[in-house]
Write a structure and sequence with these properties.
Layout lengths: L1 E5 L3 E2 L5 E8 L9 E7 L5 E7 L5 E3 L7 E6 L4 E6 L8 E8 L9 E4 L3 E5 L2
Parallel strand pairs: 2-11
Antiparallel strand pairs: 1-3, 3-8, 4-5, 4-9, 5-6, 7-8, 9-10, 9-11
């Protein structure tokens, strides 16, 4: 299974971020994986943002829920992340990952994308 994140590298404050995770080697509708978005800000640890499971229902970090939407496009086998009202502190490397269970523990992820840098700056 391979995951590839894509999206804009630079976004202005208050704008909306849209990221795509293209999945190959597995269908995103499989019962085998939860597809997760994780980010890492400079100097900080990994932050679980949310995931979408086989049912297509997404779960979110309580701290990001108001600004975040995770969905999927089954025709393109992609998972997407949208985050609005971006702040400077949203600057981070954003990762897409897959795990066989719904988890926030990085050791339990089976596959990771390489990550995409997002910088929030005016």
């Amino acid at each position: 299974v391979q995951l590839q994140e894509s999206g804009p590298g630079l976004v202005k404050p208050s704008q909306t971020l849209s990221l795509t995770c293209t999945v190959s080697g597995s269908s995103i509708t499989t019962n085998d994986y939860y597809w997760t978005w994780i980010r890492q800000s400079p100097g900080k640890g990994l932050e679980w943002m949310g995931d979408i499971g086989p049912s297509g229902i997404a779960d979110y970090s309580p701290s990001l829920k108001r600004r975040t939407s995770i969905g999927r496009d089954t025709s393109k086998n992609t998972v997407y992340l949208q985050m609005n009202s971006l702040k400077l502190e949203d600057t981070a490397v954003y990762y897409c990952a897959a795990a066989g269970v719904e988890t926030m523990y990085e050791d339990e992820y089976d596959y990771w994308g390489q990550g995409t840098q997002v910088t929030v700056s005016s």
